[in-house]
Amino acid sequence: MSTATDSVYRRFLRHRLGVAGLAVIVLLFAFCFLGPVFYHTNQVETNILAANLAPGVQGHPLGTTDVGFDELGRLMVGGRSSLEIGLAAGLLATGIGTIWGAVAGYAGGWLDAVMMRIVDTGIAIPALFLLLVAGTIVRPTVGVLIVVIGVVSWLVPARLVRAESLTLANREYVLTMKALGGGSTRAIGRHIVPNAIGTVVVNATFQVADAILLVAYVSFLGLGVPFPGTDWGGMLSNGISYTYDGYWWMIVPPGVAIILVVFAFNVIGDALRDAFELRLEGR
Amino acid sequence: MGRFVVHRAAQAAVVVVLVTVVTFLLLHALPGGPARGILGLKATRIQIEQFDKANGFDESLPQQYWSYLVRLLHGNLGTSYKLNQSVSSLLVERVPKTLLLTAMSTAVALFVAVPLGVWQALHRHRVGDHVTSSLALIGYATPTFFLALVLVIVFAEKWPLLPPEAPQGTSISSLLAHFSGLVLPIVTGAVTTLAAFSRYVRSSVLDNLAEDYVRTARAKGVSERRVVWIHVLRNSLTSLVALLGYYLPVLFGGAVVVESIYNYPGVGLLFWNAAQQSDYPVLLGVVLVISVATVVGSLAADLAQAAIDPRVRGALR
To answer: Which domains does chain A have, with CATH numbers?
Structure first.
């Protein structure tokens, strides 16, 4: 491990809230992905006879849902889709945005102008609307949601990386490399992106947090993972219909889970930003 | 400054044209095209053909785009077939109400976030900073519909202090007459944006405190209070203004959720209902207006910032 990454690593570990956030994420992943190995529940067939049971009744620690799914098991299954979509879509968005921004900033001139006007256009159109249109054209699955959410969220990282790439493109070592006959792919791949890595990594954690929130909104709009699958946002909006019946166990666990995971990814991002010693305005 | 204005306005014009291209193409990307969107899923092929012929949808795409642009320039945003009303008249009715609600919740958020962000920057990495940052972040991490629900349960059900629903007036004054009904929607909108704003102010104040002009001011013997609340804050606020221009789509996204939950008669609710009923002329009209407002808003913010801060003019490429 080089000294630079080593010191980033050490500075991150000094950030107590960030380390706590990382611990929360590890625990949530373990809960969602390893949990079902030890805690077997039927999350495919409904059981109306065991619907709306309060926590603790008939051996359901967190009660059951309106169609008789075990709530604790459901929390694991739903969390799996929330985390899968959030992580993959956040990384996809960061990936697209990084390449787009690096190319635009490095190329400059008309190519930069064209690429950035496309970004401006994307920012001006509400993502909610694009998600709605996507929802009418394709049937949502975990894979589809990853692509759709990734594709509507790459604009902010593109802007950030472009700003960085713009200054990096005029550094002596990049100019020297160009003078020596190095190609632009090499310049972007070996110099621009690696030097912007702090910005990219920090933004990726925020992107994942935002993607998890966005999945929840998409489910609230009724365009989430189809039944019998679910995600935390879907569980939450389903539970909301039973608020006035007092079935709090259908609302509180997924709500708290979303807050916890989004909070944790954000504090990790903050800690990373301090560790990379970055200034990242707007967040 | 003149060159900057022209350059930046030209960029904005290009983006507006691109936005119209995207909305136009999206209407055609819908399965069955605009006819299916308007006539509904059960329309037969013959009905669709007739509709396409009657409305010029059988022409080539560039021709159709041209007539779409001409209609837009005449202020014709199409007609809602579900509400049987022109989209522009719907927008004229609804936009001021959403502006009212969004402006009030943004004002509340800023009123709390600006002093909070400054205070946090001055107490960086102390307990108070951690506690308030974490609280703001919890507000950010809470899905708006969940927050709204919790607020309704606590302040309308458990302790019936406030109405659970927004007032249902046709005019702004009738909405304001029942102000208690606006409290929960305003608070809901404010809580979700507060974290973003206070974070921004905090980091921007920290950045500015490291600048040379702060050292100069301190060396001249300017009081610390004056350095922070006059010199630094003024610089931080200009960049916050620029942020607000780009923040419009986010605020609109929040308005859709808040208005649909509290049943507030604004553009957000109009959009929500149109989405439920696949009322595409309304959806596209709303999106076009929001997008153009965003472009114009960020243009205005950039120009204002450039007028105040000469460094911005130099930074533009």
So the answer is: 3-41+58-282 (1.10.3720.10)
